Amino acid sequence: MKQKIYILGLITTLVILTGSMFRVNHMAGASILLTLGMIMLVLWFLPVALRNHYRTEGNRQNLLLYVTIWLTCLVVFGGMLFKIMHWPHAGLALIMSLLFPFIVFLPVYLVITSKKENYNIYNTVFVLSMLAVISVYSAMLALNVAKDKIDDSLRLSRNYNMLEKTLDEIPAPAHQSVLIQKIDDALAIVDEYQALIFRHEGFSEEQWNIGQGNLKKAEEAQVSSPALVTGEDSSLDTRLEDSLNSLMTEINSTSGYETLAKAAPAIFDFTEPSDGQYQWTAKVFQYNTQSWSLIYLDGLETNLKMIKATLH
Known about the structure:
mainly alpha, two-stranded antiparallel sheet
């Protein structure tokens, strides 16, 4: 039986390693191999191995410990898989995988082993060390995946900036309507917001546009907001939210732009939150990561210029 378990463990390891190599090299089939490997590990190899060890030990009092070990592996490896595959609720799954071993497994392990006479203390030290390693590995996994996603997402800003250069070459409309003026007002505020954030980070807009402006804490939230704090009461600068509200009101009231009026909330990614005024500003610039705050501003600027270019 042990030989079959060893063979099953070897096959499972090879599937996971192959899927990992495919994933690193962005090869087709990586997702299938990783998912298959994790399923084999948690739902096949571990139950068989734990069942065999439980029967060999012959102590039914430790059944709870074996069940807890399997549940812990399910949560930990499941959280890793969710994070690697970028599935929905991956962040929550990874947090659960970090907390579950300490909240569930460790108490059960300590209670059961404390009842054993002459239990080797080195086994407890080894288990605690393994839990520490799992926590560090999971944290590093979260950071690496987040960094890769941020690096990829910043390419959106580069693409937006290249498109903006083309839009800037288009001649301005011959007449200055109220709608065009409101677009220009919003663009001016976007430029001011960007300048404030760039100054806060210690580089210029020109450096950002050519890819030489490095964000110090691109993955952290509440970083863009200090640059946009104004007034004696230290409140967020809400001029952009007010400007977009005014622009959308003008679009809705202007004849001939009914289609644009329906699409405007999606184009600007602007919807009035149900929990109060100016919560949109907090959502975009306070609770969002710094990288996505700047990406939003670049995208908004591009969309405003594209709409302006179509007006005549």
